[in-house]
Amino acid sequence: MSETVVPAALTVPRVPSSPRRRVASAALTGARVALALFLGFSAVAKLVAHASAVESFERMGWGSGAMYAIGGLELAGALALLIPLLAGVAAVALVGLFAGASVVQLTLLDPPNAVMPALLIALVVLIARDRRERTRELYALLRGRGRVPHAGQ
Question: Cα separation of 137 and 39, whole Å?
Fold first, then answer.
């Protein structure tokens, strides 16, 4: 079995982190899990056509197809947030989803409720920043120039 040699320029250096950085990263890991649970529940409500989700999409004038699509995106984002290698990419994608939710709240539903998705944008930006090294690893891996990281990193 052959082993792929990765040029040093393509590997992500593991810089020893400070105690403050470790605490921040642990806090963001907790936030990732909490956000994944929140998104999971929101997604399930849409995917099972819960009355509250159906009513919201009817108020917007959108069909059930949009409800299922958004539910699917939320579920995919929730699951990807829980996978360390995918969490950064998921956070970046969720910026778009939450920006859309904020605009929809402002224009079609309840303007005061637009604050929540806007706050979630700030959270996912922090998550994406925290996971940027893993996102670089994923990019290198997808280009065939990286290594498969150890689980849990």
Answer: 25
